[in-house]
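for ur thesis appendix - SEC-C domain-containing protein. copy paste whatever u need, i formatted it the way the template wanted (i think)
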Amino acid sequence: MKDPLADEVRDPQIEAYFGRCMALLVAAKTHVRDRRPERAVAIWRQLINEGGKDGDTARVDFAGYLFDEGRDAEAERELTAVMASGRVHSSAWCNAAVLLEEQGELEEALFWYSMATDRLTPEEIGGSRRLEDLVTGRRRVKWALGVPLDDLDLLGEQGDDEAQDRESDLRWLLRNPVVIDERIQVWDRGEFDAGVPWRNHFIGTDPDAYCHQAERALRATDRRAIIATWTFDGFVTCLEDAKFELDEIPGGRLIDWPPPRNKPCWCGSGLKYKRCCGGPIPVAEPVSEVGTLTGYRVAHGG
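the 3d part is after this line
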């Protein structure tokens, strides 16, 4: 079929590789860029009238243009027509959910993502990149809305906002050791390594002050507790994968507190507990300020 409105801008290489629909949509965007919106609209309408999956894809593309033009009601009508098709696992459906997310319509986007994913099995998700994208989108929007993630969400990829929030929360927990449910999370003493300057900026440079800070928190509870130590590699692993709970610390140790006075100190100094953290410690000691991993790409190992 001839597409005269697009012939002068259609890319034959795009058409050969991605198909006619994509070539026409690229042509439509070219017309919009070159201030020929009437030609772009004609292409979208042509594809929409032809129906099917290509028609759905064109509707979503057209809706994006309408949103950009401030014609929100018209854009929403186009998306409603896509929903009416019932093709919940199509690329158009995924694109519509992403479009709503980009418009800040998070609850509506979550509805689209959930309709497409609620009944999926892990096996189905693992066998399709498109389904993985839909689950990832649902996870991303849930996190933005403050909705708890479920096991299905964890099959999707972690979004940037979630990664930053989880890093901030975990970093605060380790920066300010406190006993929660008879457990305290601390950096392992071995992580205060003078040979890794940038990591010292993140963790700190004074292991004695840090361990005394944790010891004061433990003594304040006046009851037995578990000390969970964290390695930097374990920290990175936990940020990569939200399935890790804080009591499943990759690379860390679990230590009963308090240890016997004549046994090695829990902090790993090599001294007896009574001559280290179990002895007199100052009421308060300053702990060096620490930085952030932002810019180090935690998800890729630093």
